Amino acid sequence: MNSIHARLLLAATAVLLLFVVITAWVMQRADQERLLVAVDTRLQGLVYGVLGATEVSDRGEILVDRFSLPDSSLAQAGSGRYVVIQDAQGRIVWKSDSVIDQLPPLQTPTVGEWLKIQDGDYIGSGLGVRWYVDDNPHRLTLWALESASMSRSESEVFATTLVIWLGLLSLLLLAILYLVLRWAAAPINRLGRAVDEVRSGERREIVAAMPKELETVKAAINRLLKHERGRQSHYRNSLGDLAHSLKTPLAVLSNDAHAANDESRIEQLQRIEEILSYHLTRATSSETTAFAEPLAISSLLRRLCDSLQRVYRDKGVTVSLNCTEGLLASCDEKLFFEVAGNLLDNAFKWTESSVTVRCEKQGGSMIAIVITDDGPGFGESDPSIYLQRGVRADERVAGQGIGLSVAQLLVTEAGGELKLENVPAGGARVSLFLPAVSQN
Questions:
Q1: Helical axes 212-259 vs 148-200, angle rounded to 10°
Q2: Stretch (H or E) spanning 136
Q3: How many CB atoms lie within 10 A of CB 246?
Q4: What φ, ψ does residue 146 adopt, rounded to 5°?
């Protein structure tokens, strides 16, 4: 799991679930204790109520006014609440109409003492009393019992309600937590977008406001960008100086080789030029495309076409340029001039009469530049072989360009793509795809 947001949400969810489970267990235990206290209080009230409705005759008979019983459920058979009265020997001398089952064994508490039972089926409270009739004491015990299933039903209702409400509360808290995490992670996402804008060339540095915790990161990235641009400039200048210093000696050697008609030396010198062009251009492209400024494609293509029309004035090439205005490409300007200039120069060189250039947005994230000429084409069923190193399509014509294989390398490292096609009606079509810069 590589997402910090997902990790925090998962950890918070686990903690919340653990908290909910512990809370539910504690509240369930507290409710059970509450129920026991409530049942005991209710049973004691029944005992006192029955005691108030009870009389003892001169002969010791227990008389209970059933109309004065404190709970109507005592008159309903099997209602779940029962009251019995025992004599001094523990014999039941009176029981409520609700008693239809065998009750558990009941002890005899001392006078004024409360006894409690809880055997799983019944919960009971008993009180020992001494009743005087004409100074004759009568020892009695009043027991009130309740079926445990009644309290269990109450507990189950509470547990069900508790689970429902805790579940809904957990979902609400998770939703709030998710929103809080998104809000807290927003600056990090904003920093990532700002870095992407710098990488794509939309900005030269990060300018978006950041929380103080990320300001040091922002400052460090901006310092790194500044240092990297300085290093790139120094590197490009060094490479340019190297290429310039080698250009004159190679030209002299090449002229001498041509004057001497030494095919072996000419071939080796051409190979040296190709190797230097390949590696110098590759090194330059790898350093310049990472933080390139956005390029206005239409104006650059128009400049290239105008220049080449002047160069190939004698051929009378007709140029049709159809380019969507406002397109911005994420590409180094020097790299674009080298690649696009090379491709257009090939089209002008091999065309019979006309060159068509079309430029448009494609797929939302790429810019397609399609160059078509009416020349002989590539002459192969698979023109892509000319994108391989060491294969030239113009071996019969002297060329000054960087070569299609090097152009392919530069475009690929810039995040683009190069495609070669033969036009069915005759001619060649070269499609150059470059990353587009979003226009906000």
A1: 40
A2: strand 136-147
A3: 14
A4: -140, 140
**Tens-digit pLDDT string for the chain (440 aa):** 567 778 888 888 899 889 888 998 998 888 888 888 888 999 999 999 998 888 888 777 888 888 888 888 888 888 889 999 998 888 888 999 888 878 888 888 888 899 998 887 889 999 999 888 877 888 999 999 998 888 888 888 888 898 899 889 989 998 998 888 888 888 888 888 888 777 766 777 887 888 888 888 888 888 888 887 788 777 777 776 777 777 778 788 888 888 888 877 777 777 677 667 656 665 555 544 555 667 888 999 999 999 898 888 888 889 999 998 888 888 878 788 888 888 999 899 999 989 999 999 887 788 999 999 998 888 766 777 777 655 555 544 444 445 677 778 778 877 888 999 898 888 899 999 998 876 55
Here the tokens at position 411 are: 């475009």
Q: Are strands 62-64 and 81-86 parallel, antiparallel or unpaired?
A: unpaired
Phi, psi of 317 (to 5 degrees): -75, 130
Q: Specify whether the CB–CB gap between 36 and 116 falls below 8 A.
A: no
**Residue type, position 440, single letter:** N
Residue 205, CB-side half-sphere exposure with 13 Å CA sphere = 15
